[in-house]
Each structure stands twice: as structure tokens, then as C-alpha cells.
Design brief:
Layout: H1 9-63, E1 64-69, E2 75-76, E3 78-83, E4 86-93, E5 96-101, E6 104-107, E7 113-123, E8 131-144, E9 147-158
Antiparallel strand pairs: 1-3, 2-7, 3-4, 4-5, 5-6, 7-8, 8-9
Length: 160
């Protein structure tokens, strides 16, 4: 008579229970790491857009020959200036910052961010150099923990 070795029903049930718990824990870790990755990518994208936009606006305002609008003490979502003798307009349009120069329109923010607020305020006096206060709010298009990431920034830039 041969004795066959096999698993008992109890051993299989215990194995399946331990295996199910292990799969549940690994799935939870995987989902958490995906959320962290999405959050990090969202944060990096919105910060990169903010740095680029502020660098471009600062450079253009610093090097402008003159600022046409907004008027002194007035706040507007559009900035008109003369840069190297060429008219340039920076404006908010459909949650994007548009740069219009030489008849061509460029979008300054990336596809992963939306601009929810853009305000240019002209500061100073009539006899001094022009200074522009920039208020900017960026919102990430990726939603993490049921909320998009939002960054609000403000700076003041003057003509050289």
C-alpha cells in the first residue's frame, strides 16, 4: 500500500488566508506609492511652470523700453509693453498665460497647470521708473487626495 502525500484542506485554507493578507498589503503599498508619485509629479510640474513664467515675465519687464498698460495704480489681467522696440502683450486667456509678440501667440504655462488668477498692477509715480506687481495663481490639472495643488505667488518687477 502506497501512502500519498498531499495538502489537507486546513493547510490550503491557512495558505490562502496568509496569501490573501500578503496580496492586500502589497496592493495597498502599491496604491500609496502611485498616489505619492502623482503628487510629486504634480508638484514638480506646477513649480516648474511657476519658475518659468516668473523668469519670463521678470526678464521681459526688466528689459522693456516702456510699459503701455495698465495705467498707474490700475490692476489688469493684461500687460502691454514695448520690448526691444516690438509691442508685446501678456494676458490671461482660457486659464492660460498668452504671450503675443510679432503677431505670434505663445502659451507660457504647460498642459499640467491652469492659471486661475493673473493680475498686473502698475506701481510708483509718474516721474519714476515703472514697476509692475504680479499676482499669479496656478492650479494643477492633476487631482491628488480629492484636491488639486494650488500655488499663489506675488512679486514686484521694475524696468531697468
Amino acid at each position: 500500500m502506497k501512502i500519498k502525500k498531499a495538502f489537507t484542506l486546513i493547510e490550503l485554507i491557512i495558505f490562502m488566508g496568509i496569501f490573501s493578507i500578503l496580496i492586500f498589503i502589497l496592493t495597498d503599498i502599491f496604491i500609496s506609492s502611485l498616489k505619492t508619485k502623482t503628487s510629486s509629479e504634480s508638484s514638480a510640474a506646477i513649480n516648474q511652470d511657476a519658475r518659468f513664467i516668473f523668469a519670463k515675465l521678470t526678464s521681459d519687464i526688466n528689459n522693456a523700453n516702456s510699459i503701455i498698460s495698465p495705467d498707474l495704480g490700475v490692476s489688469s489681467s493684461t500687460l502691454d509693453l514695448i520690448l526691444y522696440g516690438i509691442p508685446e502683450t501678456i494676458r490671461l486667456n482660457n486659464n492660460n498665460i498668452e504671450l503675443i509678440t510679432g503677431g505670434t501667440t505663445y502659451v507660457l504655462n504647460g498642459i499640467n497647470s491652469r492659471i486661475t488668477n493673473l493680475a498686473f498692477t502698475r506701481l510708483g509715480n509718474d516721474l519714476g521708473k515703472n514697476t509692475i506687481r504680479i499676482n499669479l495663481t496656478l492650479q494643477s490639472s492633476a487631482v491628488v487626495n480629492k484636491n488639486p495643488e494650488i500655488i499663489s505667488l506675488e512679486t514686484t518687477v521694475g524696468l531697468r
